Amino acid sequence: MNTTHRLSQAGSSTDHHARIVGLLAASGVPYAIHEHAPTVTIQDADTSLWFPVERLVKTVAFRIKDGGFVLAALCGYSQVDYKKLAAAVGINRTKLMRMAPEEIETELGYVLGGVAPFAPNDRTRILLDAGVMAWSTIYCGTGRQDRTLEIAPQELAHVAAASIATLAKDQSTNSTN
After folding, report:
1. What is the CATH number of the domain that holds 40?
2. Residue 48's domain spans which residues?
3. What is the mean pLDDT of the chain?
4. Cα-Cα-Cα-Cα dihedral of 110, 116, 119, 124, to 10°?
């Protein structure tokens, strides 16, 4: 595995899962992988899993028009503020596009419900919302719809080579993207 903690773009989400687990094992950080019935959305997870929804971290995939990708990880039902995300990446908001599920699978090798906050290639940046860092442990994707990673957010940021920024919409206002 290379030192930038990137995953090879080739392969299936099962391959991504194996690489993510390999990265975690090689890093020596404490973590747990939980097996469960497949889930696709945060609503599915909230309904059918035992994890507290406020500590469930969903990963949302974006394409940058000039090339590259961004995976933005936020807790529970938080929504991405596109202007904040664009500013954190250092681009104009108009250059940031949310990816469709088929694009995520084709371009990044992740299936919907299995998107993990780990870069599948060297053109992908990982950003964790600052709210993720408030918890002692969080639960996030592993590349599979039926496995969830439990890890301290600081350890996730380290192993995934993620940046931390305020990405979530302010819940007290009706911010538009």
Report:
1. 3.90.960.10
2. 13-165
3. 88
4. 80
